[in-house]
Specification:
Layout (H helix, E strand, L loop, with lengths): L1 H32 L9 E6 L3 E21 L5 E6 L6 E2 L4 E5 L2 H34 L7 H34 L1 E3 L4 E3 L9 E2 L8 E16 H13 L11 E5 L10 E6 L9 E8 L11 E18 L4 E2 L5 E6 L5 E5 L1 E6 L2 E6 L6 E5 L11 E4 L3 H6 L12
Parallel strand pairs: 1-20
Antiparallel strand pairs: 1-19, 2-9, 2-13, 3-5, 3-8, 4-7, 5-6, 7-9, 9-12, 10-11, 10-13, 11-12, 13-18, 14-15, 15-16, 15-19, 17-18
Helix pairs in contact: 2-3
Length: 403
């Protein structure tokens, strides 16, 4: 009886375990047959490209130089009596800068004037002598030789008068040269001579240097290759010349601040430096407050031309392959991500100027690149919309090898 009771109990336990296992199996089958929710496409922020008018500029390094410069040297020899200016001050055209001792030059002028007066006083008597001889030669009272000598004496007296007139003028010029003046208005530097110094005419060492600073020149160097590229773009129509503003130039100072006044392109040099492969571009810039001084380093922003239908893409929407080729991801009409190979021209602010690879109306992904690859269906939201700004997945460059 005991064995039968034990056998019945084991049977009941086995039946219960089988029922539990059967329930678990049925539950698992139900969970596998339940429908899975459809995946949500990733959301990306895009911008729709539109062509726009862009002025293309080139930033070139350059140096300032004086508009006019003159080294002051004496034109007569003598002793410096006075210096009549303050070093580093502005001078006017014709202002006396140095006074050389005029005494010997005044004496030379007075002597020349006296000799001129003497020559002029001799002429009337010689002329009267000729007139008398002219009457007497008719009666053969004087010889023809005497008459000819008298006529020659008149011509000699006239020549002597002209000679002394030139001597008087030369003495007057030399006397004026004792007053060393500024040839034009400008700023004068330090003096190299002192009062009492003996100077010689046209000596090698200048007294001082006068420079005109308003306006001022800015000489910049531009690559000859850039010139050829610019001409080619103008000929093919990629660029058009802006006749109104094409010669205007902006400057950036050494500290990075913009210069408030615009300059104007004056000329481009006709010779290329064989050592550097560049040529000089000269710019004339107003400088009324003398902010620019000769020898300063500046950067000139020179306009190349105008692109009427430029395609600009934010730099955050452009990545590169391992080879360095620029690429962008766009969303087509079906919402699928496509990869485009790009050709870039230059950076303009925080955007790239596109030469090829993108066109008007393309939707370029600029935010939400974390899990996006070419061929993936996405939900495109305009970048400037509140949803696109708030919900876009943080940006991450796509894998460079994605296709």
């Amino acid at each position: 009886m005991r064995k039968n009771a034990i056998g019945c109990g084991c049977f009941r336990y086995l039946a219960l375990a089988a029922a539990l296992l059967n329930g678990v199996w049925l539950t698992g089958c139900d969970s596998r047959t339940e429908a899975q929710p459809a995946p949500v496409p990733p959301e990306v922020a895009t911008i729709t490209l539109q062509p726009q008018r862009v002025e293309l500029t080139t930033e070139l390094p350059g140096r300032t130089s004086a508009y006019r410069i003159a080294e002051i040297r004496p034109q007569v020899s003598g002793i410096i009596q006075k210096r009549l200016f303050e070093e580093g001050s502005d001078v006017k055209a014709g202002q006396v800068l140095y006074q050389i001792d005029p005494a010997p030059f005044q004496v030379a002028l007075d002597s020349a004037k006296a000799s001129l007066g003497k020559a002029q006083a001799n002429l009337p008597s010689i002329r009267l002598k000729v007139e008398r001889y002219k009457e007497l030669i008719v009666d053969k009272a004087v010889s023809q030789q005497d008459y000819d000598d008298a006529v020659a004496a008149v011509e000699q007296a006239r020549a002597e008068i002209e000679y002394w007139k030139t001597q008087v003028e030369a003495a007057r010029i030399n006397l004026n040269y004792t007053r060393v003046t500024a040839p034009f208005a400008g700023r004068i530097g330090k003096t190299n001579v002192r009062t009492g110094t003996l100077v010689t005419a046209y000596q090698g060492q200048p007294f001082a240097t006068v420079q005109q600073l308003d306006p001022i020149y800015v000489d910049v160097a531009q690559s000859s290759a850039e010139l050829l590229r610019l001409r080619r773009n103008l000929e093919t129509g990629q660029l058009s010349a802006d006749e109104g503003n094409g010669r205007k130039v902006r400057l950036v100072l050494e500290d990075g601040s913009p210069y408030p006044l615009e300059g104007r392109l004056q000329f481009r040099d006709v010779t290329v430096d064989p050592a550097t492969g560049s040529y000089t571009v000269r710019i004339v810039v107003p400088n009324p407050k003398h902010v620019l001084l000769p020898g300063m380093f500046v950067r000139a922003v020179v306009q190349e031309g105008v692109t009427e239908k430029a395609i600009l893409v934010p730099q955050q929407g452009v990545s590169r392959t391992p080879k360095g080729d620029p690429i962008a991801l766009v969303v087509d009409e079906s919402g699928t991500v496509r990869q485009r190979m790009l050709t870039l021209n230059r950076a303009i602010g925080d955007k790239w100027l596109i030469v090829s690879g993108l066109s008007d109306g393309d939707r370029v992904i600029v935010e939400g690149l974390l899990n996006v690859r070419p061929g993936v269906v996405v939900k495109a939201v305009p970048l400037d919309s509140p949803m696109g700004s708030a919900n876009a997945t943080p940006s991450k460059r796509p894998s460079a090898g994605s296709n």
